[in-house]
Specification:
β3 and β4 form a beta hairpin. The protein has about 290 residues and is α+β, with helices and mostly antiparallel strands. α2 crosses α3. The chain has a domain of about 160 residues: Rod shape-determining protein MreC, domain 2 (Thrombin, subunit H, Beta Barrel). The chain has four helices and twelve strands; from the N terminus they run αααβββββββαβββββ.
Length: about 290
Amino acid sequence: MGFILKLIKSRFFIVTLAVALLLSIIPGVLCAMGQGSYVRSAIVTVGTPFRWAFTKIGDGLSGFSVYFNTIDALRAENEALRRELDEYKNLVYDAELIEEENDFLSDYLGLKEEHLDFSLEDASVLGRESTNYRTLLTVSKGTLHGIGVNMPIITDAGLVGYITEVGATWSKAVVLTETATAVGGYIERSGALGVVEGTYELRTEGLCRMVYIEAESDIRVGDKVITSGIGGVYPRGLLVGRVSAIEVDEASRTLTAIVEPAADLDSISKVMIVTEYGVNEEASDGTE
């Protein structure tokens, strides 16, 4: 209440009130005296700056509206382009998968034609378990698909390894560069026999070795190493790899061939499991 009384008594309030009264009275008096045109002219003159200001403000607001509408349109266009790009990416990805699947099926059929005595089950590599001592692959087929322990795993390039553990819908396999593997082999060019095995030292380099080769055997760098079928785990005629180096063991008077596997054991994504194969009469008895 005290504040209101102070406001009423203030000079600013008195002056403002006087100006308001004058602005209210003068137009009425002029109109009564027949001078309404002057009143209108004065109102127009006084109001012109305000109209100009309001017009500019309106134009500015309109400009802001157009700007924000443009931004919204650009955002919508960008979103549409992003969705379209994602669709194209999906199409490319699907096309790559189809091409990969077609290549695999072509390789699968090629192997079927080359090895008519093979029963093959295709599988995907689901994972890889690596420890200091061995690497195991997990593949997508198990007992429900007729898979059993010791079945060989191959690709169109060559031998991969064999099944060591089986579940209902999965299996684990060890690759041929691991210390737990051994396979009878021979040199395709000369027929020299030996045993291909993994070692702890060579596995880190992705290599294996062929041992127990007679010292007089004809063997050269670049020779193909083929499974001999000895031992009953692996069928005869699968490509193991190529000889990359030859060492002489003076103590045992034998040769050792370092072998580079034909299959890319580090990046394979699909394999074929040999569930059955005919026993080749050329393979002799022995152990792997």
